[in-house]
């Protein structure tokens, strides 16, 4: 959802900005631009297209020479991707880059137009640039503060004032922003990977704080314009974690990182063979009291919640609702004291999930965040917090974050079931021990199924539409398989509860339509197989993901292609079974000539509604 960067130091600013933006391209990639102080003037170069298009333009028009500047990579919200709508945007004395959405930009635009201001772009950002310029009174901090009182919505801004060529300013409300520091230089960025090449030390800018960055250092004021001292943080990710490391794409790299990501996430949360989430603020006393659980999230994170529902209900025997955050927040949901609301989010900044968290708290529910990005808004605002320790996830399509979200859902369900005394300590130990074996099973699938999935992908590339089917946990999982495929391959697909097909959807099946069936739950496999037979007899091409045990029992000709995965405890099968679905989506996208790391129309961190 747009990446912003800024630099003050002694290096070639243009190079630093473009390099930093290359680490944020996952946030938006329909246009890019930079602005640099050159001999006291602000020089702006921007273009529609990817960062490579900006590089080419800089080569053609010449790089602005200077050591202080700001940059932007865009995911269009207001106005189509075009040169003129690209950031930075300027007023006469101010140039800015922006991530977020200004909700009252139309009123402000009208107000400024009546004051004689003219606009050249369709963006909400240009309105902010013009407002800053209109209100400018010689004091940048007071001007920024004055404007903030007028702005509604979310924003992280990098700001240059023409009169102050030795510094840049930054401010945020809702949208994330960090301020990186190193010897003689400082940075702003929407996310940590952008600055890792230069420093691992950074400050997290809080809502309504304003930062001033000069070569001598950074200073901060709070919303009352009082100087404040902030805690310096150190990123525990290194550069390598944010690079492709020899893989052609981040998506396949991150799929390969999953065994380690699961291990890293679960191992520190297991003590004496049992789950232990006390460090996350989760105690038996608290868990005992919850009478229901509601899981709220978006997209892939919501799918992790769907698996969580099956597992928690099965083990802890309390009702679990799963809700899409954008629905939950506008539905006057029934949650109150005594209910637990779990918010799952990789970025921890998804606008709808954050709003859902705040609503749940307002209604008196206890909130638990399951988040990957350290220090993100959702992580900071929830009552209890479990970090998924997946490391930076750069590909837009979530893989390793999802698998660690699943792992945490299992640990939480085990702990809740223990607290509710619906499973014995011995049974819980057995489940934990099975969970500890899952990273190896995932590694086995990566090592042994990739070639087969790559081959099957060649059979999917010309499909117009696909169905994913399964029952129970396999249905919950097929939702994620279907989303993964459509977001990177651009082939339409839907997931269906296998038993529901005959109530309408089966009429879609015709000759050659691919149907991907997931069957890992022994007690319902015969039912799923009947559904497979139904679609096969209507012409579907069936790809079956099932356990090796199930494959041995299969009658000849039931499926066209079978991907066998190792059998583990049935409850845990989704963690292993998602891997071939991810690999299948990846290769289908690549074979169709798509860049799976940057699917069209998508951005990694959805900080707007
Ligand atoms: C799909 C995907 C999205 C995200 C969703 C929520 O691969 O990544 O569906 O899961 O936008 O994002 P987070 O988890 O950051 O709240």
Compact summary:
With 609 residues, this protein is α/β, with parallel strands linked by helices. It is built from 18 helices and 27 strands.
Overall description:
This protein is α/β, with parallel strands linked by helices and 609 residues long. Helices cover 37% and strands 24% of the residues. It contains 18 helices and 27 strands. The strands form five sheets. An eight-stranded antiparallel sheet has the order 3-2-4-1-10-9-11-15, with helices on one face. A hairpin with a 2-residue loop joins strand 2 and strand 3. It starts with a strand and ends in an 18-residue tail after the last helix. The mean pLDDT is 94. The structure holds fructose -6-phosphate (F6R).
Record the SSE blueprint.
Layout: E1 3-8, H1 13-22, E2 31-38, E3 41-48, H2 51-61, E4 68-74, E5 89-90, E6 94-102, H3 105-114, H4 124-135, H5 140-148, E7 153-161, E8 168-173, E9 178-182, E10 185-189, E11 201-204, E12 210-214, E13 217-221, E14 227-228, E15 233-234, H6 250-256, H7 258-266, E16 270-271, E17 274-275, H8 284-289, E18 292-297, H9 299-316, E19 320-324, H10 325-328, E20 339-345, H11 351-362, E21 366-371, H12 377-381, E22 384-387, H13 400-419, H14 425-460, E23 465-470, H15 473-489, E24 492-497, E25 514-519, H16 525-536, E26 541-547, H17 548-553, E27 561-565, H18 573-591
Parallel strand pairs: 18-19, 18-20, 20-21, 21-22, 23-24, 23-25, 25-26, 26-27
Antiparallel strand pairs: 1-4, 1-10, 2-3, 2-4, 5-6, 6-7, 7-8, 8-12, 9-10, 9-11, 11-15, 12-13, 13-14, 16-17
Helix pairs in contact: 3-4, 4-5, 7-13, 7-14, 9-13, 9-15, 13-14, 14-18, 15-18
Bound molecules: fructose -6-phosphate (F6R).
Fructose -6-phosphate is lined by residues 298-301, 345-347, 350, 353, 397-398, 483, 487, 605-606.
